[in-house]
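[STRUCTURE TOKENS]
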Amino acid sequence: MTPRRKKRMLLVTFLVVGVGSATGLALNAFRNNLMYFYSPSQIALGTAPVGHMFRLGGLVEKGSVKHSKNGVNVRFILTDGAHSIPVYYSGALPDLFRPGQGIVAQGHLKPDGHFIASDVLAKHSSTYMPPNVASELKVARARKSGHVSSKEGG
């Protein structure tokens, strides 16, 4: 092999390794930043990861909102009609937050089953609900009433 050909081969090798490394790092960063969505029923079934960040959606259970004496910490129960999950949050709640309101909380699940929220988002419109939240609530209500069809995922 001539010296010129060796140089080219070395350059091509470094380029392939560099592009491969950059692709690997980008895919790893993408995978680590994915934010999955779970319902209280999915958490009750054990499909949600403990200790990893994800989004939890449902309705704030009436009578469950409890503010701490310092006014910063709040505890409430999020339900999908079939299962309920206690949520702890420290910070200012959105103006639209109230019992019966649909919300999405971002945070992580503790091993004891409590959800620690880092962010709470309230849905804006009383008529709009994201399709995945609406379908999860529908399936959870059907499970609770015992009328789950195979089409609904039972």
